[in-house]
Amino acid sequence: MTKASVCLLMCLVLVPGCLPARATNKNRKDVPVKLGQSVVSLTGPWKFRMGDDPKWADPNYDDSHWELMDLSPRDGSVDPTTGQPGYVPGWTLMGHPDYWGYAWYRLHVRVQPYEGGKIAIAGPANVNDIYQVFANGVLLGSFGRFRNGGTTPVEYYSQPMMFDLPEPDTDGPQDVVLAFRVWMDPGTLVSIPDAGGFHNAPLFGDAAAIDANHSLAVLGLHRTYTFTVVVAALFLLLSILAASLILFDRGDPVYGWLSGVFLLTALQSANTCFAALTQSESIVVASLLRDVFLGPLILGGWVMVWWVWFRLRQHAWLPALITLLTVMYMFSNLMGEDLLFTLIPHPVSQLFHLASVGIRIFFLLPLFFIVIEGVREQGWDGLLAVPAIILAVAAQFQTELAVMHFQISWFPWGAKVTLSEVAYIALAAVVFVLLLRRLMLSLHRQRELSAEVMQAQEVQRVLIPETLPQVPGFVLQSEYRPAREVGGDFFQIIPHSTDGSVLIVAGDVTGKGLQAGMLGALIVGTVRTEAGHSSHPLAILQSVNAQLEQRGHAHATCLALHIARNGAATLANAGHLPPYLNGKELPIQGSLPLGLLAEAEFSQIRFQLQPSDQLVLLSDGVVEAQNQQGKLFGFDRVRQLLATPISAAGIAAAAQVFGQQDDISVIAIAFNGVLGEPIVWRPTQAIHVRETVQIIPEEAFEFPDILRNQYLN
Questions:
Q1: Is the dihedral of CA 438, 443, 444, 449 positive or negative?
Q2: CATH classification at residue 510
Q3: Are residues 353 and 423 in the same domain?
Q4: Which of 8, 105, 407, 656 has its Cα between 20 and 30 A from that of 591?
Q5: Considering the domain boundaries, does residue 484 fall inside one?
Q6: DSSP per residue over 598-629, as a string?
Q7: Is residue 60 part of a domain?
């Protein structure tokens, strides 16, 4: 034996002893693994043919002359709808442009199932638009609703589907002929650049594995529309928020418009999810809601929002133009989306689609005009809105951008985010910031206005005396009920300090609110100043007229009545209602209101009051009260009331209950002529209260019992 042989023998003996011993475990349980539970992607090549024939489902049909369609995806291809990999273009990019209708896919498969295994097939997760699947001529099922008699099928947006194959008759290899009958609507050609049939390969294999893949595909589809659900909820909350702001600022219509547009956007997003995740709403119905109704209304609504936002009321023609464009947009989408392809040929529908694009472009003209005017009027508020408006404009051409192969969808963390959603969220964010700023400014203005109203109410106490002076020989009553917080009626009762006479001035300034109250304060100040020099009614009116005429656009009706201690009365009138003496209107000629002409002449009469005579001065708010049927209170009802022993408060209450439209002022003067003796109010005619109520027609005027008991003696 050589030395080399000896060394080799020693190594064989010693080395195994130097290696670590393999661990053993007598209680070990091995996990069983069954090879064969697998899924295969059927990329083909498939046999493909356009048209429709039921014989093409027959496994014995000779399809050798059909063209081949390879469904192998390119590296890095992504489904633009779900963001999943493995996307392949449709038949319009494989030699059949502009084709829509039926087409068939056939594939011969030899399969060796494992013992006891079941076979299933998962349909393509993205297909245009619906299909039926056959195995060896047996219909396994369908996605979509196919109807007999040549009726157009009902399409739905693509969703994952799986179908079980019949159990094999033998244990050996099986030959299966798979056939897919596909239908595509012509409207799909408009919205998808590479439309037509399969966009990914069906899966074939073990039923349990197919079911697991199907569950993952369903979860992936739901995850795809997660962001759309969030958008729907967000815009619903924004709609509620905008509607709630109406309570804080009822005078600004922009909150109502924003609430409506936000609500429409929420409905559009919610409907997108509903149509994509269920088979309860067809593509036709979803397109009608999205493209024919909600989309045009949202676009027109946003244009109106900015018109109202920038307060461009001087351009009153814009709402009519926006309404017309919105209606035209609806009609062109109805005709241009191939929704009525059974009635309107596809080439004609394409012309309407081009018209829809033109209308959307034309929509930009009023939108840009509004934005430019808004920037000119409001500066930074308008500039802040420009980027979001540009995004929203781009979103209106989302379909056209997709056809031109621009990226309009992104898939962060598997959730689909579209250009329109980004645009509307950016627009909503900008509007939210502007809305908060607008609301703060509005609340600031309201606080300022509230302070001004409080000041004006202080002025009102000067216009309408809270307590009437005691004038010997007279009994005075008054009642004032403004239509707003600050009214335009005024009256002053100024007794003379030495001769026992009394000067009564009453009137109504044009307008309402704070401006009217301030004008009334000017008149009252002028009256009191002039009364210190002269109590003649004509001089009072002329002095007030001179003050108003110098201001311009300041007008008022007014009368001045001077009653001497012995009952001699002088009345001057400037467009005011004549007083009633013992229930009858005094015969005084009409004249112009104050403030119209510098040298205006005012009518004047003199008359003598007798003991127990009664004078009633009314503002036009009494006779112009109007009920819900549009009937005026009128002079006849005034005369009927004055024929009864009714107080000034009773007259005012009757007009207010009937339907107040304007400030109501009533002054009643009873003259006795004998100083120190009480004055008894009497009716001007011998008419009882019950008879008076019967004179007034119930269908036109009802005097409530509570008022009758309070004001009728």
A1: positive
A2: 3.60.40.10
A3: yes
A4: 656
A5: yes
A6: TT---EEEEEEPPTTEEEEEE-HHHHT-B-TT
A7: yes
Same domain, 259 and 184: no
DSSP helix/strand/coil, 67: strand
140 plus 117 within the same structural domain:
yes
Q: At what angle do helices 295-309 and 419-463 cross, to 10 degrees?
A: 40
Q: 337-394 pLDDT, tens per residue?
A: 877 777 788 788 888 888 988 998 888 888 888 888 877 877 766 677 777 677 777 7
Can you give the pLDDT at residue 35? 43
Query: How confident is the model at residue 678, as a pLDDT?
Result: 43
Say if residue 514's pLDDT is above 90: no
What CATH number corresponds to the domain at position 194?
2.60.120.260
Overall pTM > 0.70 = no
For 557-560, which contacts have Cβ atoms below 8 Å and span 24 or more sequence positions? 557/507, 557/508, 557/593, 557/594, 557/620, 558/505, 558/506, 558/507, 558/508, 558/523, 558/593, 558/594, 559/505, 559/506, 559/507, 559/617, 560/503, 560/504, 560/505, 560/527
Domain count, the chain: 4
Which 3 state secondary structure label does DSSP give 636? helix
Strands (DSSP E) contained in 26-129 are 39-41, 46-50, 67-69, 101-111, 119-122, 127-128
Question: How large is the C-alpha radius of gyration of the chain?
Answer: 45
| Residue range of the domain that includes 158 | 39-222
